[in-house]
Design brief:
CATH topology of chain B: Rossmann fold
Shape of chain B: globular
CATH architecture of chain A: Single Sheet
Strand order of the largest sheet of chain B: 3-2-1-4-5-7-6
Oligomer: heterodimer
Largest sheet of chain B: 7 strands, mixed
Number of domains of chain B: 1
Mean pLDDT of chain A: 75
CATH class of chain A: Mainly Beta
Number of strands of chain A: 5
Strand content of chain B: 15-25%
Largest interface: A-B, 27 and 27 residues
Distance between the termini of chain A: 46 Å
Distance between the termini of chain B: 75 Å
Strand content of chain A: 15-25%
Number of helices of chain A: 2
Structural class of chain B: alpha/beta
CATH topology of chain A: N-terminal domain of TfIIb
Low-confidence stretches of chain A: 1-12
Shape of chain A: globular
């Protein structure tokens, strides 16, 4: 079970539920397709790399910004 | 053992560790630029956390990281001792700033159910030492903990909190993620750490360059630590200090080891370069002032250990003031009083 999370390569397992957003302390949604933990409210996505969730705020991706950029590109 | 001679010309910064203490006013003056705009302007910003992360990652990537682990191993085992002192089991525990898992290796699965290991350096997490406890690795910044309130029965932290910019906040967050009646056991470098190196560098730099800049950052004082823990909400506090002295062949070997531990200086206001001349002078001063009889030089690491509990109503508390039924003056007659008291009940 849990040890597999730390095992590089295995990405399918869902991360523990009590991981929250380090900034807002709100629960996160696990997005299996991108393997990210997402804070919908603030639009922040924390990547899971080699089975290790990266919860460092500086490493997070702003989901809304990238959407806006995509929209701009589409126009 | 390969010791590249040119290393110090490439990154000639000394080191070490510093902890935000309570005298905030002075620190705001001394702290340099704060290029990262994300944190609020009132937050102290002394240390370059990105650089610290790079230094730790670099250290964990070295071919022989175990060579520099002696200090963290030792302190890790002493923290584990303190965990065993508490006669209970901890289903869920967290090691904050675990590095390569120096505490987990000394604990067993009967005491700890599941161990979360959090650090800012992914290389350290990937390289972690073996333990029999089921572990989960999480990359996390000590200043921004990604855990839900009331989660852990035990939080431990060994020699990692001295690089945190906002120590009061970090302690508050540790308190927040602990369950009621949960316990925090931490170790941090104290104010006398590396005083020999600090002194030698100051003397040498003053002599050669007509002034000195901080190379060893200031650490927290032990009484401040008690106040900080109390302010964060912990009770039944225990803080004690310990000194570990390590002997080195010379100052350069000490500095190389500090770099190997990932403990290089990361203050924003660090000096980018220490002249070779100054370094040689400092090494000479160090040898002259502190040398042992066998020619080696000592380096002192002062360690503060702290234990704090999160409040729970089952915990022992002092009785309310004025609630005593017997005077202290009658303490000598306590044996006569006790049976009476029992009878009256």
């Amino acid at each position: 079970g849990v040890a597999a999370l730390a095992d590089p390569g295995k990405k399918t397992e869902e991360p523990p539920r009590f991981l929250v957003c380090p900034l807002s302390k709100k629960p996160l949604r696990y997005e299996a397709s991108t393997n990210e933990l997402i804070n919908e409210e603030l639009g922040i996505a924390y990547p899971i790399i080699d089975g290790i969730p990266n919860m460092i705020p500086q490493a997070a991706r702003m989901t809304r910004q990238s959407k806006k950029q995509e929209e701009v590109e589409q126009r | 053992m390969q010791r590249p001679a040119g290393l110090w010309r490439l990154c000639p910064r000394p080191w070490a560790a510093r902890v935000p203490a309570e005298n905030l006013g002075r620190r705001e003056v001394t702290s340099g630029v704060s290029p990262r705009g994300s944190t609020s302007p009132r937050t102290l910003n002394i240390f370059d956390r990105d650089l610290k992360r790079k230094q730790k990652n670099w250290a964990a990537r070295q071919p022989e990281p175990t060579k520099f682990d002696y200090l963290k191993e030792e302190v890790g085992s002493r923290i584990a001792d303190r965990v065993y002192d508490i006669p209970r089991n901890f289903p869920l525990a967290l090691d904050l700033g675990c590095g390569r898992g120096y505490i987990a290796q000394y604990l067993n699965k009967e005491t700890i159910g599941k161990f979360f290991q959090a650090d800012i350096a992914e290389n350290a997490l990937k390289n972690s030492l073996e333990t029999e406890i089921p572990t989960v690795s999480v990359l996390a910044d000590e200043e921004f903990l990604p855990f839900r309130e009331n989660t852990f029965d035990l939080v431990v932290s060994s020699l990692s909190l001295h690089w945190v910019n906002d120590l009061p906040r970090a302690l508050e967050q540790i308190h927040y993620i602990l369950k009621p009646d949960g316990v925090f056991i931490g170790a941090m470098f104290g104010g006398d750490t590396l005083y020999e190196l600090r002194c030698s560098l100051q003397l040498a730099e003053t002599e050669r360059e007509g002034g000195f800049s901080p190379h060893i950052s200031p650490f927290t004082a032990v009484n401040d630590l008690g106040h900080l823990l109390g302010r964060a909400g912990f009770n039944t506090l225990t803080v004690d200090t310990d000194e570990i002295q390590v002997n080195y062949p010379g100052m350069f070997e000490l500095m190389e080891d500090l770099q190997g531990m990932g403990e290089s200086n990361c203050s924003w206001n660090r000096k980018a370069l220490l002249h070779r001349d100054t370094m040689l002078a400092a090494a000479a001063v160090y040898r002259e002032m502190y040398r042992n009889e066998d020619g080696s030089v000592p380096a002192t690491y002062q360690i503060y250990y702290m234990i704090g509990w999160k409040y729970h109503e089952s915990q022992a508390r002092p009785a309310e003031r004025g609630s005593a039924t017997v005077s202290f003056g009658e303490l000598g007659k306590i044996n006569n009083l006790m049976p009476q008291g029992k009878k009256s009940q």
